[in-house]
Design a protein that fits this description.
The protein has 27 helices and 25 strands. It is of the alpha/beta class and 866 residues long.
Length: 866
């Protein structure tokens, strides 16, 4: 017989029972039953006192949740029981107490009663068990089931919201089994509550047969289309099936997402916003600003913390350039940041934007504002495509190389999915790329997707130096000038940087390198035969071993001939053949032209990189297959791969290279930063009507070429006399954005002004400049002879006597060169342009150069990159 001691080794003492075999055999059934009952009782007592419910993870979120329940005649007792279970299913994953979630319930039919028998006050229950007991005790009121008086329920809700204040988020779950009896008034009340209580979010659940009208009504009640739900019957919210459980989970997740919980990561985000004419200020841009604040609202800002947090910048771009609407250092609080976003304006200079232009702006801004160890996120919101798709992708790859993670949003039909997917290179399939219509841009569904993307990638610090090779197949021979040996390591880094951008293999990209000086170098470690190093690793090792001892001279003709020979002997048939010339010094074209032409005739396309001031840019452009394939670097120590170089070489390798057109170049890439004051005098007489638009664009683009507020800029419009409403004083604006908006809006032609009072405008400009110290310049735009040429010449001379420089720009065909010379006093400061010339970037840059030079005579270092 087993002993009690042995039993105690394997069971709890209270669950050990012993009875002799004899007792069991000889006792009656009653005794046996008594024994069995004893065991049952003890086991039952033990399991009852020790039993614990399964642990359900609960979200601790401070919010008020209001359930407004339809008890009209379409709701039966069994349906209401399901609704009660639905409410408990929703709330079981939230912490219920005074500092966390609080729940109130109201029913409505003919009306919404205030008696406790018909409602649960929002502050009545501070535990889940107490709340669920109260929910279970609720029942339908059969005397209240005539109509769906949603207005009555919302009016009662308004009292609750007013009592609770606006400090806690309020989630209102409106359960409807059909259209509201007072639909119009109820929807209006819902919108009023939403406007008055910014933290209120209406979630609408429709149950029953659907219709287009009712679907529209639910969307109107809801916070947005992403918070409107529908199910065919009450079984859909029972939780008894996998589908109904998933449906409840969707509603629960929506409630959680409405109540944004700020999270903390160390990251910088640059929002890159399409600023073309497609970005309608009243619709697209308003929604965009709302979207930015919603996205920013979910994370802690660096200005709010001792360390970490997010920094925010906004760059607006188009096809012409970009401007910084908001920089990392422009705000010191969340309220100030939101105020700056609310007051942002978009200046629309082009019909379309160019994504590659915006990506360049983002890349350069990130490069100038590195914060270790912050992750870097680029957020592109575009309604346009790139003029050069490969250039946009090259910009994106360059940012990825610097560790910038892109999040891409394309809006409406003007975007291309393939292009946008190519801009996010870290996650090639299923990455953070969103395509949406304007109407859905700020919907809960899209917002939640974008919030998730930002939160996910803000926590990932992408490594620098990761390459994403292009897909291409070609043979490449690099003609490397041995002058690179001056800074041996930098030139080799340049080569390895270039080659890591391709898939080096026997079947994809094969590479050869020929070094040259006064002759072609053929000694040890001075050449790499095309295809002899078929994989990247061994190719890089061979590059590091190259002997780049300078030999003097630059025999371009000889190295081109050697390149032709290597292609003939080692090149593959049927694949593009590229030659890249990297050199410093002069080229003697009498010797080179024939060989260059022969290479091109044999299908060998040349790109060139000129290094140093002794190398002519024109020479490099002539040597190349196309001038856009001729690149310049300041010295061997700064030879790098730029995105245009990267994109154009790939385009050449794919037989896709086409020269880009200038288009509407309305923002200059370089700025003049010399302290000065500039006044633009614009002829607005009736004869300017057909040319004024391009004249204004040209003048505005010229303004962009001077760094404000270092350079003060103003404007004067004139007809017969100065038009007072057009005058922009020199100190009126400190940013180009403000100046642009006011200049474009104020400079309106005067159709009643038949004359041209150039003399009056010059005199006004002279008066304005009278109290100004420093360099002063007037730029005059006019299309015809002044009403009084002699007086104009006198006023111009008076201005020059007052140390004011004058630049005269004649537009159209009605003005003579002598008229301009009388104004400027120098042939170096006059220009004559036809209407089409006003969109020519070379002419625009020439004017900028002349004006910039006049601000600091003799200084050749006038321009800086923006």
């Amino acid at each position: 017989m087993i002993s009690p001691f042995q039993l105690n080794q394997i069971a709890s003492p209270k669950l050990v029972f012993t009875k002799s075999i004899l007792d069991v055999k000889t006792t009656s059934n009653n005794i046996n039953q008594e024994f069995v009952n004893t065991i049952k009782g003890v086991v039952c007592e033990y399991t009852f006192t020790k039993r614990t419910d399964p642990e359900i993870p609960r979200d601790d979120i401070a919010m008020d949740v209001y359930f407004l329940l339809d008890e009209s005649n379409t709701v039966q007792n069994q349906d209401f029981a399901t609704v009660k279970q639905f409410m408990q299913s929703i709330m079981q994953t939230f912490v219920i107490d005074g500092d966390s979630a609080m729940v109130g319930v109201r029913k409505f039919g003919e009306q919404s009663f205030t008696a406790l028998a018909h409602m649960i006050p929002i502050n009545a229950h501070t535990s889940q068990s107490s709340l669920f007991n109260a929910i279970n005790s609720m029942s339908l009121n059969i005397f209240n089931n005539g109509r769906r008086n949603v207005l009555s329920a919302l009016s009662m809700l308004e009292l609750d919201l007013a009592a609770r204040g606006n400090s806690r988020p309020a989630i209102v779950v409106l359960v409807l089994t059909g259209s509201a009896s007072d639909s119009t008034a109820a929807i209006q009340k819902a919108h009023e509550l939403q406007a008055n209580y910014k933290n209120m979010f209406m979630v609408v659940l429709g149950v029953g047969s659907d219709s287009q009208a009712w679907d529209s009504e639910r969307n109107l009640f809801a916070y947005d289309v992403g918070t409107a739900f529908w199910t065919q019957n009450f079984a859909g919210i029972s939780g008894a099936t996998a589908d109904s459980a998933a449906f409840i989970q969707r509603i629960r997740n929506t409630i959680k997402q409405c109540v944004a919980q700020k999270w903390r990561e160390t990251f910088d985000i640059v929002f890159l916003i399409d600023g073309s004419e497609r970005m309608n200020p009243l619709t697209h841009f308003s929604i965009t600003k709302y979207l930015l604040k919603e996205l920013i609202d979910q994370f802690d800002l660096a200005v709010e913390l001792q360390s970490g947090g997010g920094r925010v910048a906004v760059v607006i771009f188009d096809a012409s350039g970009w401007y910084y609407a908001l920089t990392f250092d422009m705000y010191s609080s969340r309220d100030q940041l939101y105020n700056l976003i609310s007051n942002m304006k978009v200046i629309q200079r082009n019909k379309y934007a160019d994504n590659s232009v915006g990506l360049r702006a983002m890349r350069e801004y990130f490069a100038q504002h590195v914060r270790e160890p912050a992750a870097q996120l680029g957020f592109l919101l575009t309604l346009s495509t790139s003029n050069n798709l490969l250039l946009a992708e090259a910009e994106a790859k360059q940012m990825a190389l610097a560790g910038v993670q892109m999040i891409v949003v394309g809006v409406d039909s003007g975007v291309k999915a393939d292009e946008l997917n190519s801009l996010e290179v870290f996650v090639p399939n299923g990455g953070p790329v969103t395509l949406t219509a304007l109407g859905s841009l700020a919907s809960t569904e899209v917002l939640n997707e974008l919030k998730t993307n930002i939160r996910t990638y803000a926590a990932i610090n992408r490594p620098e130096g990761k390459y994403f090779p292009w897909s291409s197949r070609f043979d490449l021979i690099i003609m490397l000038h041995d002058n690179a040996g001056v800074t041996d390591s930098r030139a080799k880094i340049f080569l390895t940087d270039l080659l890591q951008r391709y898939q080096i293999s026997p079947n994809e990209v094969r590479v050869g390198i020929i070094t040259f000086g006064k002759i072609v170098n053929k000694g040890a470690n001075q050449q790499i035969v095309l295809g002899s190093k078929p994989f990247l690793g061994e190719l890089v090792l061979a590059i590091l071993d190259l002997d780049l001892t300078p030999t003097g001279g630059a025999n371009v003709q000889a190295v081109m001939m050697e390149t032709q020979t290597m292609f003939n002997s080692m090149g593959r048939s049927g694949v593009p053949k590229l030659a890249l010339l990297v050199m410093e010094g002069d080229v003697i074209f009498d010797d080179v032209r024939t060989v260059r032409d022969q290479l091109q005739a044999n299908g060998i396309f040349i790109a060139s990189v000129g290094v140093g001031q002794s190398t002519s840019k024109v020479d490099m452009e002539v040597l190349a297959f196309n001038p856009e394939l001729g690149f310049m670097m300041p010295n061997w120590g700064r030879v790098i791969i730029t995105p245009p170089m990267d994109a154009n070489i790939v385009a050449l390798s794919r037989n896709q290279f086409t020269p880009s057109s200038i288009g509407d170049i309305l923002r200059l890439p370089n700025v003049c930063a010399n302290p000065a004051s500039l006044l633009y005098l614009v002829d607005l007489s009736d004869s300017m009507l057909n040319i004024i638009d391009n004249t204004k664009k040209f003048a505005a683009a010229l303004m962009s070429g001077f760094q404000m507020p270092i350079v003060k800029q103003g404007a004067i419009g004139f007809g017969t006399t100065v038009i007072q409403s057009t005058v922009i004083e020199l100190n009126s604006f400190s940013t180009y954005l403000e100046l642009y908006i006011n200049f474009m809006s104020k400079m309106v032609p005067d159709s009643t002004s038949m004359g041209t009072g150039t003399f009056d405008a010059i005199q006004r400009g002279t008066n304005i400049f009278s109290s100004i110290v420093g360099e002063k310049i007037m730029i005059i735009f006019t299309d015809g002879k002044s009403d009084n040429p002699a007086l104009t010449k006198t006023r111009a001379q008076e201005a020059r006597n007052a140390s004011i420089g004058l630049v005269a720009i004649g537009v159209g065909s009605g003005i003579q060169q002598q008229d301009l010379l009388d104004i400027s006093g120098s042939s170096d400061s006059i220009f004559q342009f036809e209407n089409q010339d006003l969109l020519d970037v070379t002419k625009l840059q020439k004017v900028q150069e002349v004006v910039c030079t006049a601000t600091r005579p003799g200084d050749t270092n006038l321009m800086i990159k923006i």
